[in-house]
Amino acid sequence: MEVLSNNNLYCSAALAGLYDVFDPEIGLNVVDLGLIYRIDFKDEDKTIAVTMTLTTQFCPMGESITSDVQQSVSNAFKDYQVSVNLVFDPAWSPDNISPEGQEYLNR
């Protein structure tokens, strides 16, 4: 699944760190799981908005995952304020999993 962004260069840098953020119940990173929908950057006020979802609205690790996403992007962009917007529309589906993630999960 492709992550949308208003700055593809910055987005690549943010995604590099997000490959190290895992859903501990599934054992796959949030990028390959297709949980990250969009990352937008505003240079004028030094903010980053990450729009993402979880595999279910009732994910018991949701708070931990979103916190780890926020921390990872903050580490990559130390001068920026990072917010994580959690959405459930569109709902996550196993179809969101990348080919690499599918291979890892033996699907």
Tell me what you see in this structure.
The model has no long low-confidence stretch (mean pLDDT 95). The two termini are 16 Å apart. Helices cover 30% and strands 23% of the residues. Helix 1 packs across helix 2. The strands form 2 sheets. It has a 4-stranded mixed sheet, with helices on one face. Strands 2-3 form a two-stranded antiparallel ribbon. It has a single domain, classed as 2-Layer Sandwich (GMP Synthetase, Chain A, domain 3), CATH 3.30.300.
Tell me the layout of helices and strands.
Layout: E1 4-5, H1 8-18, E2 22-23, E3 28-29, E4 36-42, E5 47-52, H2 62-76, E6 81-86, H3 99-104
Parallel strand pairs: 1-4, 5-6
Antiparallel strand pairs: 2-3, 4-5
Question: TL;DR of this structure?
Answer:
The chain is α/β, with parallel strands linked by helices and 107 residues long.
Based on the model shown, name its key terms.
107 residues; GMP Synthetase, Chain A, domain 3; four-stranded mixed sheet; two-stranded antiparallel ribbon; 3 helices; 30% helix; globular
Q: Give me the CATH fold name.
A: GMP Synthetase, Chain A, domain 3
| Strand count | 6
Helical segment tally? 3
The main pleated sheet reads as:
4 strands, mixed
Task: Round the mean pLDDT to the nearest integer and report it.
Answer: 95
Instruction: Give the spatial strand order of the biggest sheet.
Output: 1-4-5-6
Compressed to H and E, one letter per element, the order equals EHEEEEHEH
CATH domain class name: Alpha Beta
Radius of gyration, CA atoms, in whole angstroms: 13 Å
Given the helix and strand composition, which structural class is it? Answer: alpha/beta
